[in-house]
Amino acid sequence: MSPVDEAQVNGSVGEQVKPAVEPQSAGNVEKIRDILFGPQMRDYERRFARLEETLLKEAADLRDSTRKRFEALEVYIHREFEALEGRLRAERDERGASHDNLARRIGELNDQTAGAQRELRGAILQQSKDLGDEIERRHQEMAATLERRFHELRKDKTDRAALAALFSEAALRLNDEFQVPGVDA
């Protein structure tokens, strides 16, 4: 720094001139900020990355779990329909023997089919409710986890007022304008 610049910064020239912010001092502020808060910011970045990974994994797990449940439900329904089709074929073959037997068996088959459909609808409804409950539970767990982690991060962040006071004091000290109360200058 030249003597003229130093005199301006220290205020030793007859009038007090505020120093102009040089590009170099802006870089110094960045270095100071990195020294003071760099580890904390890197820690926040790591936490956010872990949180994002966890949420993405949980979402993928939930998606996989939901897909597997739907596939299992689809296989179950397919088997039930195949079983019903098998029963229907057997009944039709048997009814070909006599006309009276045919009318009686059609009534039985209708009753069986209606019962099977009721049972199937009930089973499907129950599995649908169970799956909906599971999805809701997982959603609430993920929301609670996200909220808890957000509050943890918010609690751990630096207080803005304390940071402003720290920077103000640092600026006063750099300008040799800082005076400790109770101490004569």
Protein model, in words:
By secondary structure, the chain is mainly α. The protein has a domain at 40-154. Helix content is 83%, strand content 0%. It has helices spanning 3-10, 23-95, 99-156, 160-174. Helix 2 runs antiparallel to helix 3 (99-156). The longest helix is centred in the first third of the chain and has 73 residues, at 23-95. The model is unreliable at 1-21 (pLDDT under 50).
Topology summary:
Elements: H1 3-10, H2 23-95, H3 99-156, H4 160-174
Describe this structure in a few short sentences.
This protein has 185 residues and is mainly α. The protein is 83% helix and 0% strand.
Helicity range of the residues? over 70%
Q: In what range is the share of β-strand residues?
A: under 5%
- Helix and strand pattern: HHHH
Question: Taking Cα atoms only, what radius of gyration do you get, to the nearest Å?
Answer: 38 Å
Shape: rod-shaped
Mean pLDDT: 79
The number of helical elements comes to: 4
Low-confidence stretches: 1-21
Features:
0% strand, 83% helix, 185 residues, rod-shaped, mainly alpha
